[in-house]
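dumping these here so i dont lose them again. two proteins, back to back, each one seq then C-alpha cells. dont judge the mess
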Amino acid sequence: MKEPALKLLLDAVYEWESNAPDRIYMIQPKGDGTVVEYSWRETLDQARRMAAHLRTLDLPENSHIALISKNCAHFVICELAIWMAGHATIALYPTLNADTVSYILDHSDSQLVFIGKLDDWDEIKQGIPESMPGIALPLSPETKYEAWEDIISRHEPIEDSPSPPADQLALMVYTSGSTGRPKGVMHSFRSASIPARHLIEEQDISPDDRVLSYLPLAHVMERATVECASFYSGTQIYFADSLDTFVQDLRRARPTIFMSVPRLWLKFQQGVFQKFPPAKLDRLLRIPLVRGVVRKKVLQGLALDQVRLAASGSAPLPADLIDWYDRLGLKIVEGYGMSEDFAYSHMSTPEKRRPGYVGITPSGVETRISESGEVLVKSPGNMMGYYKQPEMTAECYTEDGFFKTGDRGEYSSDGLLKITGRVKELFKTSKGKYVAPVPIENLLNSDSYIELACVSGLGRPACYAVLQLGEEWRDKVDDDQARAGITAHLEQLLEDVNTQVESYEQLQFLVVLRDQWDISNNFLTPTLKIKRDVIEAAYEPHLDDWYASRQKVIWQD
C-alpha cells in the first residue's frame, strides 16, 4: 500500500481554516471570570497578520524566535505566525530563573522574544538582554515592548499559505535540565508532524474531543499531544487561568481527554478521601446497586465525568492508584517519550495496559534493549540533534540510528515496556554493589503519605531515602500525636519496602524533610522531576549524623 502524502503541521491548520473557519478552536479565560473564544478563522487571521509583521523585520531566513509564556491561546497563535514567517520557535518555561533565561536566549541565538502570560516577570526580565527586541502578547504583564494588538491592527494578513520544507527546523525544546545546563533539542517539521498525526490515529482523537491545557506547553509532552495533535484532530483546547482557578477551569472544560502527572492524580484521590473516607467509599463500590451512582458522583466532583481518555506521564503511577481509578471506571493509560523523540515512543491503550508498564510501541516506532539493558528507540519523532552540540548528538545514537534513551528497561512477553531506572543514576555503595534508585523510589512514592522521595547512598554502607510528605500529612507534623502516627506508619513502610528489594538495596533509614522541594528553589525541574544531584548535595552535610543516629525514621526539624 502506498504511504499517504506527508501532511505537515501548517498544511493541517490551513485545512481547518478552509473547511471549518467558524468552528471554535480555543477558549481562553481572561482572568476576570469571562472567556474569549477563537475560531479557526480568528486564529489564522491573527497569525497571518503577525506573520506579515515578522516578514517586515528583515530577519535572516529560519531565524530563532523566543516565546516565554504560560499556556494560553496566543502561545499557539504566536507559534503559527513564527512558522508562517519562515522561522523557528524557541519556547522557554515560564518558571525559569533569570540566569537560565539568559543562557537559553544566548545559546539559541534568538533574534526576538515574545512575552506572554507570566507570573514572575520581574525575575524573567532580568535574563533578557536590553538590546533584544520584543513583542507583548495579550495577557502579558506590563512590559516595555509593543503590544500584539497594536501590531496586528496595522498589518493585513498574508494571503499565501506557506509550508516550510519537512526537514526545516520548526522548534527547539530546551530540556528541563535535571543535570547541568539545558540542551536545545532540534525538531524539524517532519519530526513534529508525524508523531502528532499518528497520535490522534492511535488514540482515536476527534474534533468532538475537548482538552484542558495546563501542563507547560514549553514541555514536549503538552506541545506534541495537545497543541500539535490538535492541528490534525481539530480538538477544542480550553486553557486554565491560574492554579487558584484550576478546579473551575476543569469544570468549565469538562474535558473528554485529560492528561496529567502522578502528583495530581494522587491529589485528586486525596481530595475524594476528604469527602468520602476510604473505607466507606470502598464499601459503597462493592455494592452493585449503588456502584454506578457512586462512581458518577465522584467523577462529577472531580469534573472528570466526561473523560474517555485519561493519561499520565513523566513518572510511573503507583499500581494501587491505577487500580483505584479503575474501580471508578476511569482507565488511566500511561506513556513514555522524551524531548528527543517528540514524546512519541511508547503508549498504553485502554485495552493494552498494565500497572508498572508504560505501553507498547505505536505506529512507525522501532525499539530494542541493548546488552547493557538500555532502551534504544528509532522513532519518526527522533530529533535533528542537539543545537551546537554535534559530538553529543553523535554519542546519543547507535550506528544504525537508534537513540540511546539513558533509561534501563525490559519488555513483557506481550510487548509492554517497564522502565527499571536510569543508566547513569546507578550508584555504588561502600560494599561495592550497584543500586538503581528509581524502582525503590517508586515503591516509596506509591504510599499515600509520601509525595516525593529521593534514594541515595553513594559510597555509604547502606542506602537511605529523603522524603517529602503529602500535603495532607505535612500540615500535621507539629502535632505530637499525629507525628507519632506518621512515624509508626513510615517505620512499617520501611520494613515493607525492604522486603521487596535485594539485601544490598535495603534502606537503613528514612528522613522526613521540612524543606519543600520546588521549581523555584531548583530542587525540581519545570516538569516536577527531582534534581537528584541538587538534593544529594543539599543534605550531604547531615549524612554522618543521620547514619550515626541508628533511627529508622529521622525528622529534619
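---- next one ----
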Amino acid sequence: MTKKLSRREFIKLAGVGTAATVLTGCGPASRYVQREPYAQMPEYNDNGRSTYYATTCRECPAACGLVVRTMQGRAIKVEGNQRNPVNLGKTCARGQATLQGLYNPDRIRNPLKQAKRGTGNFSDLDWETAIQVVGAALKDTQPSEIAFLLGLAPDHLFDLVSSLTAAIGAPVPLRFGALGMFESRVTLTQATEDLFGKPGLPFFDIGRADLVFSFGANFLETWLSPVAYTRGYSQMRKGLTTRRRGTLIQFEARMSQTGATADEWIPVRPGSEGLVALALGRLAAEISGAPLPKVFSGVDVAAASAESGIPEETLHRLAKLYADATNPVAIPGGMALAQSNGLQTAKAILALNALAGNLGQPGGLFFSPTVPLFADGHPASLAEMTEFVKKLESGQVKALFVHGVNPLFELPKSLGFENALKSVPLVISFATFPDETAMQADYILPDHHGLESWGYQRALTGSAQPVLSGAQPVVAPYYNTRATVDVLLAAAAQAGGKLAEALPFKDEVAYLQSRLLPLVTMPDGPYTAAEINSFMAFFQQHGGWWQAGDALTTPAGNPLDRTIKAEVAETYGEGEFFLLPFVSPILGEAGANKPWLQEVPDPTTTVMWNSWLEIHPKVAEELGLQDDDIVRLVSEVGSVELPVYRYPAIRPDTIAIPFGQGHTAYGRYAQGRGVNPLDLVHPTLNEAGDLTFAGIKVRLEKTGRKQTLARLESRMGVYGEEEH
C-alpha cells in the first residue's frame, strides 16, 4: 500500500488546490489520506478554514444523516444532513452529543487482554497479536460453537459477519438492541405479516393525516425514527396537506412528551389498549352506517370502558372524531404492545386503519420501502435472546464475539446473561467504551468511534424513499483502535480456507465498494456514475444513496374480515402498582457516558443526572411521600431504590421509571448513577416473543431517607413551598 498522505498533500498532488466543496468525499482514495490530528497539522495548514464531511449518526439505528464540521483535524460541530431523506437536516440531542463520545476520556485506547473477567486487570496487546487471537478462534473452533451478538448498527458489519458465518457454516449473527425491545419491533412486524402477508415495519404517514390516534407510540422522543416522525408531526400540525391543523389523541398510562403535545391525553389502563381500539372501531363503524366488520363485531363497548377506565361517553366522542376525519391514522406503540396480549393489540390498532380506508392513502398506513439488494437484519426478540442465553449456559458456545450491544445492561438481569457468560471459554468484545459486557470479556479489541468509521445503515422506517445512509471518517482515529471489519478481514485472511475465499477484500473500503457496486447502475438514484470509484466519491459527498421519489407500497389483504381476541393483558407479580419503564429521550440505552446528555433536563420532569420514580401526587400524599423521598420498589425478581418525583400526568395505579441510568461500568459519567428498571422486570413474553415489560406489578416501600434530585425547575417545583 502507498504511504499515507496528509489531506493537503493529496489535494496538492491532485491539482485541485484548497478544498472548496461543502461536503468532502475524495472517493476510495480517501482510504490513503490521513486526516491529520490537530497535534500533527503541517505548518502550511490554512488556519480557520473548515472542512465538512457527510456521514451517518451511530447513536441509534434510525440512519439519520450528519454533516460534521472539522477544523485543523478536529471535529467541532455536528448538524443534520439536509440531503438525507430520513432527517432532512434535523438532529436529536443524542446526535448533537456524538462529539462527546469521540472525545470521551474513558474510551478504550488500544487492544486489551483481561487477566480475569470483571477484575479490570488488563494488559496491552498489539494489533498483530489481537488479530491472531481472532483468527485462531475462527479457525480452531467448531463452526457450530461460534456466536456473534451484534447491535442494530452498523448494517455493513452485520452484512459482512453474515457472509463470514455462512462461509464456515456457523449460526447466523444475532442482532439485539434495547431500543428495538422497548419499541416492540418484533411484535409490530409480526402483526403486519399476520394482517397483510408481509413482514416489515409499517410507515405511518402522519404528515398528511388530519387525525392521529397514538396508542403508546412516543414518536416525538424515542419511537422507531423520532426525528423523521417529529417532522411529520410538524407538517400535520401546520396542515400542509389537509389545509387544517391536525389533531393528536394520545392513549397511554403515563404522559410522555408526545402526550404532552397532544390535543388530548387519555390515561388508559395498561394492557387494555387493544380493547379500546376494538371498541372505537365498532363505534366508528356504527356511526358511518356501514355493515359492522367482523373484526369489531365481538367487542363489548361497556366492558372495554370498564376495563380501560375510559368513560363510555369519551369512547363515543372519540369514535365520532375518527369516523368524521378525512385522513385518520392509528399507531400501535411499544408501550401498548409490551403486554401478554401485545400481538392482538397491534392487530386491533392496525385494523382501525383498514376501517378508515387509509391503506396506501395519503395520511394513512404504508409499508416502508427497502433498499434494493440490501436485506434487512431484523432484531432478535426476547424469545430468541432467551434461547441464546440457554445456549451459552449449556456450554454450546466456545467463542462469542460482541459488537454494538451491551446485553449486561440492555437485557433484564433476571434473564441470566451474566451467569451464562461464565460458561463461554472465550469472549471477545469490540467495544469502544468500557461497558458492562466489555468488562466481562477476555479481550477488548476496540472499534473506531462512529465519527472515525466507514460504513452504511439502512433506514427501516421514517422515510418514503429507500435510504442507504453512508458513513466515512471525519477525523483521524485518536487512539490505537481499528475497524472491526478490518480486524475480521485480516483474521479471515490468516485463517485461510473458506473464510479467506468468502472475504477476499484487502480492507473495509474494498468491502464497501463490493456491496455498493449493484447501485452504480441502479436507476432513480440521486446521482449517476460510470464506475464504482466515481460512485464511491458521490456516496461520500452526499452522505449515502437513496431513490428519488416516493417508493412506499400499499398493504394488501382485508384485516377487517378476521377475529381478534378482545381481552385484557395478564399481569405478572404481586403489588399495587403497574410498573412502566420508559426509554429516556435524552440518554437512551447508551448515552449515559456523555455529560452533555446527563446535563440536559428531562422534557417532562426537568430532572438531570439521576433516576427518579414518577408517582401521582394524590397517591404520594396518601402514602406520606414527598419529592426526593427515597423508596424501594420490589418485584418478583429484584428491587431498586430511588427518589420520588410527584408527577400529575400519570394514572394513580401506575408508577414509571426512565431507562438509561443504572450503569455499573461505562465510564466516569455513567457508572454508579441511578438505577436500571430492567432489574425489576421478569422475562415474560407476549405471543410474538417480545418482552412484556409494561405488564409488571410491583410494590412500594418507604425507606425514610431522602436524596435531592437535580432539577432545572426551582426547588419549589410545581407544588409550591415544602417542608424538608
